[in-house]
Amino acid sequence: MHLVWSDERGVIYDAPTWQAVGRSGFWKYPWSSYPSWIPLPEGSTLFHLVGRHPIGISPKGELRVYEKGWAVAAFIAPAHTQLASAAYEKVSNAPTLPLYAYTAVGWKNGRFYVPAVRIDPQPRQDIRHFDPLAINRGAEKLRKRFPSNRLVAHLLDNCVERYCCPAARNLALGRWECPLPTSPACNAACIGCISLQEKHESPIPSSQERLSFIPTPEEIAELAVYHLNHAPAPIVSFGQGCEGEPLLVWRTIEEAVRLIRRKTPRGIINLNTNGAWPDIIERLAHAGIDSFRISMNSAQPAWYERYYRPRNYSFAMVKESIRRATSMGKWVSINYFILPGFTDQPTEVSALYQLIQETGLHMIQWRNFNIDPDWYIERMQLCMGNLQPPIGIYALMRQLKRDFPRLKFGYFNPTEKFIRQHITPLPASQGNTKCTV
Ligand code: SF4
């Protein structure tokens, strides 16, 4: 697997006598240490990393910096999980990288390869399924059907047009998961928040802006009922990248969910959340939320709280939220931010095991962490001295599969059919109707 590098213009070359290297936090390993290299998935983006020289195995077989050009990294397509980050050495004034994941890249037999696995077989966000003309037609149809619905306007004008959001495009195409952003504010201040980067402390921009209004329960229900009744394998999801934390508008969501379930029993109502408040999670579960996805960079309270900087909640409360939801027969996934060298730290693995054992969560969604690894290390005040060599993301996956055979892996929120197949229904007396799927 040849090392790849780029010139100032971003033209990419391979170095046929150098071997590629992957990075796992503070550690660097030859490409062959990572058990899965796949052709660069369609829909991925390649970056040339200005101010960073690639590290590789030189013709003499030594780990060396390749001074001739800049490093290259891949922002790999959805449904794929990275096993190694790009390995490079920074020059002194190298700029902080924006909020993307930077996966290692190599070259072999005339094509680019990345150390990754396809973690979810569903083609929901595969680029070849996004026909721009069909998206425009679908968007026009929704605009005509909901002329005064501000949420629909936000999703079409902002999310489809400006951000090309795959979830919003699937809405326009009338299929799979429909996003329902609702909250302009948040009760956390994540270092790598994609919807809010404070200028006074962050050298990089947020990836998108937060919506500026709270839709009414009627606006939410109108769109959700339409999607649930028309789309194949439908899901509607609160908690999107273009908002803060949905729990802050729980009354609106509670009312909207009731309105939706009065109109249709079809599909899944999902809540993507930071899971801060167990009582509210329980209340929304009673109202009719079918599944929850709780986001986290770490299962270790110290690392979680250093990254999320929670306001009036703690990791213990997040854990309690998961435990409450599973005990009510709800499907619970964690949206686990994967950063090789940290996610696979032995201390992190033990904490993850404890979280799974104590909460009964059903699924890990293996999401690549959209952050500059060096900036994460700096802001989290991490140092090699306090860490151990990582076990490897691939090894972690295999271990979890062996020790938790019922635990599911994925990338996307599961459909009603999938949940019905894999969740043990609660006795009717214990849970409320819809949630015992
Ligand atoms: S919980 Fe979400 S919206 Fe809130 S700060 Fe973190 S990433 Fe941003």
What do you see in this structure?
This protein has 437 residues and is an alpha/beta fold. It folds into two domains: 2-118, no CATH class; 150-422, TIM Barrel. It is 30% helix and 23% strand. The protein is built from twelve helices and 21 strands. Strands 15-16-17-18-19-20-21 form a seven-stranded parallel β-sheet. Strands 5, 10, 13 and 14 form a four-stranded antiparallel β-sheet that branches. The chain has a three-stranded antiparallel β-sheet with strand order 4-3-11, with no helix packed on it. β17 (268-273), α6 and β18 form a beta-alpha-beta unit. α2 packs across α3, α5 (250-263) packs parallel to α6 (278-287) and α6 packs parallel to α8. It is globular and about 70 Å long. The model is unreliable at 431-437 (pLDDT under 50). Bound molecules: iron/sulfur cluster. Iron/sulfur cluster binds at residues 186, 188-190, 193, 195-196, 244-245, 274.
